[in-house]
Design goal:
Layout: H1 3-24, H2 27-45, H3 48-56, H4 61-95, H5 97-102, H6 109-136, H7 146-172, H8 177-183, H9 186-192, H10 208-212, H11 216-228, H12 235-260
């Protein structure tokens, strides 16, 4: 078999392994999934009227704020799901299974590829579930065209890939699963400091750079524009640039740690 065929075969095997682990131990995935759902319900039903008045001049109520907050919640879902990837990678490293894989005749890169592909699939499934909850409580994107839906799905997949590679690097660089979970928390905290819940223009002047110059805000604004027809501007290119940069950084970081790690 060619190197490419071996890589594809072994990566598929590792992908199945990671999906089986996620199915057998669903508690971590469920815990990470419940957080964005609870935040969605909290912000819509508890703070929705007040937040809508703040960003829309008192018109629209909960329905308007629901439409505004859903894109941010979907990105928060991806960030939370990738925390599980960091924990899974760290667990594999500390329990010795990686050392066992290195003694076997398998493509070395397939171990990381399996983790990444498995995490991206879990991100997609998590986004679908959270999106279904949003639709159930009234979210609609009726103005989005078929092309805009395709672009929105592509953006979510690209963000999932970028954050997963970063999470894999965090997992490889952590001494244990608990440390990996802590090191990956910025992937959950950064969406909270973005335009997910309030517009950047409504934030205090000293806080705006924190929200503006980070990867989640342009991704959220792009997704919001695709689904709701709001202005995207330069955010689309910024979102793609951030995703490509984070993917490249995470890939280089992860592969370098994986190659030199003696465990």
């Amino acid at each position: 078999m060619s190197n490419l065929s071996l890589a594809v075969r072994d990566s598929s095997t590792m992908l199945r392994r990671n999906l089986l682990h996620a199915r057998r131990y669903p508690s971590l995935t469920l815990n990470l999934l419940l957080t964005p759902i609870m935040m969605l319900l909290l912000f819509v039903y508890v703070f929705g009227d007040v937040m809508s008045a703040g960003i829309g001049g008192g018109e629209g109520g909960r329905a308007q704020y629901l439409a505004y907050v859903v894109p941010g919640i979907l990105l928060l879902t991806i960030g939370g799901t990738t925390v599980g990837s960091a924990v899974s990678v760290a667990t594999d490293m500390t329990e010795g299974i990686i050392a066992r894989f290195r003694t076997m005749a398998i493509h070395r890169g397939s171990v990381l590829v399996g983790h990444v592909l498995g995490s991206v699939l879990q991100c997609v499934m998590s986004v679908i579930l959270v999106g279904a909850v949003a639709v159930a409580i009234g979210f609609r994107a009726t103005d989005a065209t078929a092309l805009e839906w395709v672009l929105a799905v592509g953006l979510l997949a690209l963000v999932s890939l970028a954050l997963t590679w970063i999470a894999v690097g965090m997992g490889l660089g952590s001494p244990n699963a608990e440390a990996a979970s802590n090191s990956a928390m910025p992937l959950v905290l950064l969406p909270l400091l973005s335009s997910a819940f309030v517009p950047v223009d409504a934030m205090p002047g000293w806080f705006r750079p924190i929200a503006e110059y980070q990867p989640f805000t342009p991704a959220i604004e792009t997704l919001r524009g695709l689904l709701l027809g709001s202005e995207i501007g330069h955010n689309g290119w910024l979102a793609v640039a951030w995703c490509l940069a984070l993917t490249a950084l995470g890939y280089v970081w992860s592969t370098s740690l994986f190659v030199r790690d003696p465990k």
